[in-house]
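Check this.
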Amino acid sequence: MAWSTALCFTDPLSFQAAISTADLELLPTTKGQFRAELTRVCMDQLWIQRFYQNLPLIIAGAMKPGRRIFTFFTSTEPAAMRHCGMNVLSGDIIVNNFDEIHQQTEAEFRLGSMSLTTHDLDAACKALTGFEFSGSPLKHLIRPNAALMSRLLKLHEMVGQIATTIPQLLEVPKAARSLEQQLIHILVKCLTESIASQMTTGCHRHDRIVARFEEFLEANPNTPLYLPEICAAVGAAERTLRVACEENLGMGPIRYLALRRMHLAHRTLLLADHRSTTVTQVATEHGFWELGRFSVSYRAMFGETPSETLHRPRDGQLMCLDGRHLSQTQILGKSTRCGSRLI
C-alpha cells in the first residue's frame, strides 16, 4: 500500500536525516533562518520526493545503493545548480550514480526525485522499449524533449499535492497503482527519448580530487589542517585543488573547510547537553582556537551566540505540515509517525 509524509524543517540536520534515498551533508552558505520542506510518497515500486529549501546550500554525500535515483527541478521558474561541476538547468534530469556527489544550489530551491530499484527499472525499460536501462559509468545529465518533461513535472506535482492535501487517496490501491504506472511510463520515456550530456574527462578528474578532499576532511575532523598537507593527501597541486573546489563547491578549499567546521560545531552545540558540554570544548574540538573570532563568525552565520545555541530547547526543530511538532531526537532516530505512515 502506498504511503506519504509531508514535513517542514527549521534545521538542516533534521532535513538531511529525513532524506531516505541518500546520505548527505547540507551546508547553508549564507546566514538566515533555515527552512525546508520534504514531501515523500512511497508506492509499491516507485518512490517520489519533493524538496524545498530557502537558503543556498553546498551538498556533499552519496546516494544509497539499491535504487536508481533521478532528480530534476520542479519549479516553473528558470533555475540552475551545479552538480559535480556540471551546470544543471530547468528541463534536465540528473542520472545519479552511487559514488560521491557535490552540488551547489540557489536560494528558494525546489527539486524533485523519482527512484526505482535497479531490477524494477530494467524490467520497466525492457517492457516498454525492449532494452534494459544502461547508465553511464560517469555522472551525466539527460534532457528529454519539452513535452515529455512537462508531462513528468505536472504528474509529479499532482502526486505531491495529493500527498499534502488528501493523502488518504494514496491508500486506495487502484488509485495508487494508476498513478504509479503513469509515472513509471513517463519516466522511462524521458530516460530513453532524450539527449545525454556526459561529464568530461577533466570534470571527472576534478570530481575525484574533491572526493579525496572530502575523505581527508572526514578522516581528520578535529585536526588543524594546512594547504600543503591537504594537497599532498589528495595528490593535487594547490592551483588544481582550488579549481576543482571552485567547480564543485563554489569556493576554495580553505573557505570550504572553515564553513564545514562551523556547521559541524553548530550541530554539536545544537545536540549537546549544556550541563556537560562547554562552548570552549566544542570550538577547540572543531579546530577553532581563537574563541573571540569564533564567536563573532558564529553569530554572523547563525544569528545567535554559541552559548545561546547550547542552551536552546531541543524540541521544535521539525514539524509536520499539518502543524504537529516533532523533536530532533525523533527524526534522527527515524521513530516518528507523521502523515499516514512511519517515516
Observations:
- The radius of gyration is 21 Å.
- The first strand starts at residue 3 and ends at 9.
- The longest helix spans residues 146-165.
- Residues 316-343 have pLDDT under 50 and may be disordered.
